[in-house]
Q: What sequence folds into this?
């Protein structure tokens, strides 16, 4: 909930020219999608229905698409509109980049091994195939203090923080670091994220800095 609200707040702060609808339309829609998700699991994620799954994935999809559209408009403004306000451009680029990290972290968290409810409520042997290979998944034969935290010995499962870390490293290194994508959809999403982060870093920020000079 906190991560989703942070993404919504960052979108609300974007300049109007980067928005595809009136400022409060998409945030209002995202909040409407978030309310039933909180109602189904008010404290901890322990219940998952088909409707819950559809709503949660739709919410992440809406945030992701709106942020990618904002990035596309931002690039268009740079190339064709002759934007002169470098400071606001830097702030907008940072907002898009941070939202990119949050929304892809949420997407990885929602999709990997059937979602957060499945990962904690379903026996490991019954889970769908993993989308990501974490280092904890192969540390059971390491030194004791490392092996004790491995998934094979402690039943470790990744949390939202783990997926946000994957998203952060993919947005800064533009490639996987210690967590490898396994499925086609994971590779596709990480490719989209790294390309959008690269565009933000190289094209948008570089142009903004040149305007400041």
A:
């Amino acid at each position: 909930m906190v991560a989703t609200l942070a993404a919504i707040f960052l979108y609300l702060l974007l300049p109007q020219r980067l928005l595809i609808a009136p400022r409060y339309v998409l945030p209002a829609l995202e909040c409407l999608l978030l309310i039933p998700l909180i109602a189904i699991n008010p404290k901890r994620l322990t219940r998952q229905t088909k409707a819950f799954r559809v709503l949660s994935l739709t919410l992440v999809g809406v945030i992701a698409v709106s942020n990618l559209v904002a990035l596309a408009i931002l690039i268009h403004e740079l190339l064709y509109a002759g934007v002169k306000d470098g400071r606001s451009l830097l702030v907008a680029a940072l907002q898009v980049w941070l939202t990119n990290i949050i929304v892809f972290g949420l997407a990885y968290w929602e999709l990997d091994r059937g979602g957060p409810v499945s990962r904690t409520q379903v026996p490991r042997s019954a889970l769908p195939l993993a989308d990501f290979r974490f280092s904890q998944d192969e540390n059971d034969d390491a030194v004791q203090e490392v092996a004790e935290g491995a998934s094979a010995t402690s039943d470790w499962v990744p949390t939202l923080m783990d997926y946000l870390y994957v998203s952060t490293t993919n947005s800064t290194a533009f490639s996987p670091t210690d967590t490898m994508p396994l499925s086609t959809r994971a590779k596709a999403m990480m490719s989209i994220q790294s390309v959008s982060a690269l565009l933000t870093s190289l094209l948008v920020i570089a142009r903004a800095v040149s305007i400041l000079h």
Summary: Strands lie at 132-133, 180-181. The CA atoms of residues 86 and 208 lie 5 Å apart. DSSP finds nine helices and two strands in the chain. The two ends are 40 Å apart (CA to CA).
